[in-house]
Write a structure and sequence with these properties.
Elements: H1 23-29, E1 32-33, H2 51-61, E2 67-74, E3 76-77, E4 89-90, H3 97-112, E5 121-128, H4 136-150, E6 159-164, H5 171-179, E7 184-190, H6 194-199, H7 206-219, E8 223-230, H8 237-250, E9 254-259, H9 281-297, E10 301-304, E11 307-309, H10 314-321, E12 325-327, E13 330-332, E14 337-342, E15 347-350, E16 353-356, H11 361-369, E17 377-380, H12 383-398, E18 400-402, H13 403-410, H14 414-417, H15 419-430, E19 434-437, E20 440-443, H16 445-449, H17 451-456, E21 469-470
Parallel strand pairs: 2-5, 2-14, 3-4, 5-6, 6-7, 7-8, 8-9
Antiparallel strand pairs: 1-21, 9-11, 10-11, 12-13, 15-16, 16-17, 18-20, 19-20
Helix pairs in contact: 3-4, 5-7, 8-9
Length: 472
């Protein structure tokens, strides 16, 4: 390998001593909860918000002078992974790609008409689906269109990322996307255990990931992320520790270790997973405990929830400086950008609104073919929504919330204004999930694991009975 981890870890043989770990308490607070990639969450979006609301927000946002963040959703996948809960189109054929790229360009044109062309595009993210389903020439075409419509950046501080399926890429892919301006990549791994891979229909030998990582290091990509999932069929604490040991040796800058949420009633592919093969609650907690212990011992900083990063990574720096942001792709070091989502199901966060495109390709195509932006639903936030979004975002990103600072920002008495949330946090404070010092609330070690529960205290849109995923 081009780079090796400094700390060697081996699979644990006994119970790990994670600070603050209290299994009984974790189980009691392990409820269904939003992930708060937005507030209010997408469940509050409504169809009464459409194209005109979105274009008005785009135009209002020009006065802010904020930089832009662009997200492109590429929905195509060659094979279906049974765990997947994303919006995707499974196909072996490449015929649908060109029409989709053409409609993306129409959306770019219609969107860019309402934006000041001098606004810098600091952040670019291609997600899916499988962005590397596209051919190299199609990737080039799409970047050219983006540059023509928005003006892409060559600044060394830009954050241009693409999600990569190692089964759908090789070293030539990496060289090409680097030439296109991408400087950060995210590789989907999920698990290196063959039995687990078979159960989720994603056979992916380690050598595929390792080869790409070696080339990425050689090419000098600024940051490399690996995605893992815990809670999959046949996983155990020891089997996942073996995967972690191999991953730590690969030394990625960032790791996202997602909690698998089994919701077959919502996501059809998950019906192919036998529920009896999933690890039980005790084993799943043991896997999480093992993960935190091993990654911490290897020198990674637990950013929050499912994100870990090396101490020199920009996410850690942003968290230390209080500028970390949470968006639909997770944690981001580029705060104060207006996010424009392009493609089927994509969500924008611009000025004081959220706007989402249709989740079905036919609806997306029809709107653009008729010369309209494909905004299907959304929401304009009230002042109360904005204040509570501020509180939730700082709590999720800083693992702390200073109500005096919030009050100064919004010209309110923070404690009085959010008295309902303060009251709801009292039980969590008694149980040791959060510590209050004056008007500052700080999540404890165990509270960081329950940060979604703490954030719920500020949520006045919470829809009980909805099919949120469990926290742990």
């Amino acid at each position: 390998m081009a780079a090796q981890a400094n700390t060697a870890c081996s699979a644990p043989s006994g119970v790990l001593a994670t600070p603050g770990w209290d299994e009984t308490l974790l189980r009691r607070y392990d409820q269904n909860s939003p992930r708060y990639t937005s507030y209010p969450t997408a469940l509050s979006f409504h169809e009464g918000f459409g194209e005109h609301g979105f274009t008005a927000a785009l135009e209002r946002s020009n006065d802010s002078g904020r930089s832009l963040s662009l997200y492109l959703h590429i929905p195509f996948c060659r094979n279906i992974c049974f765990y997947c809960a994303r919006n995707k189109i499974t196909t072996q054929a490449t015929d649908p790609v060109e029409p989709y790229v053409s409609r993306l360009d129409r959306e770019m044109v219609l969107t860019s008409r309402h934006l000041d062309s001098s606004r810098a595009v600091e952040q670019l993210h291609w997600g899916g689906g499988t962005p590397t389903f596209l051919t190299l020439s199609q990737m080039s075409d799409l970047v050219d269109r983006l540059d023509a419509r928005f003006g892409l950046s060559s600044s060394p501080d830009r954050d241009y990322a693409i999600e990569i399926d190692p089964r759908e890429a090789d070293v030539f892919t990496l060289r090409h996307i680097q030439a296109l301006g991408f400087n950060r990549i995210s590789l989907g791994v999920q698990d290196l255990d063959t039995r687990v891979q078979q159960a989720m229909n994603r056979l992916q030998p380690r050598v595929l990931t390792e080869t790409l990582m070696e080339e990425a290091y050689r090419l000098g990509f600024r940051s490399l992320n690996l995605d893992l999932i815990y809670g999959l069929p046949f996983q155990t604490r020891d089997s996942f520790a073996n995967t972690l040991e191999q991953v730590i040796a690969l030394n990625p800058a960032r790791l996202s270790v997602f909690n698998y949420a089994h919701m077959p009633e919502r996501f059809f592919p998950q019906r192919r997973i036998n529920k009896e093969d999933l690890p039980g609650p005790e084993e799943k907690l043991a896997i999480l405990q093992t993960t935190i212990e091993m990654l911490t011992q290897a020198g990674y900083v637990h950013i929050g929830m499912d994100h870990f990063a090396r101490p020199d990574d920009s996410l850690v720096t942003a968290q230390r400086q209080g500028t970390l942001q949470r968006n639909f792709q997770g944690y981001s070091s580029h705060a104060q950008c207006d996010l424009v989502g392009l493609g089927v199901s994509a969500i924008s966060r611009v000025d004081d609104v959220y706007a989402q495109n249709p989740t079905h390709l036919a609806g997306y195509e029809e709107a653009l073919d008729n010369g309209h932006l494909a905004t299907a639903r959304g929401l304009r936030l009230s002042r109360d929504d904005l204040i509570r979004r501020h509180a939730i975002e700082r709590l999720m990103c800083d693992m702390a919330l200073d109500l005096d600072q919030l009050g100064q920002t919004w010209s309110v008495d923070g404690v009085a204004y959010l008295a309902d949330a303060v009251s709801k946090l009292e039980e969590a404070e008694r149980d040791g999930l959060v510590r209050r010092d004056g008007n500052r609330f700080t999540a404890t070690a165990i509270g960081r694991l329950m940060i979604r529960h703490l954030a719920m205290a500020f949520d006045t849109h919470l829809q009980h009975g909805q099919c949120y995923s469990r926290i742990m």
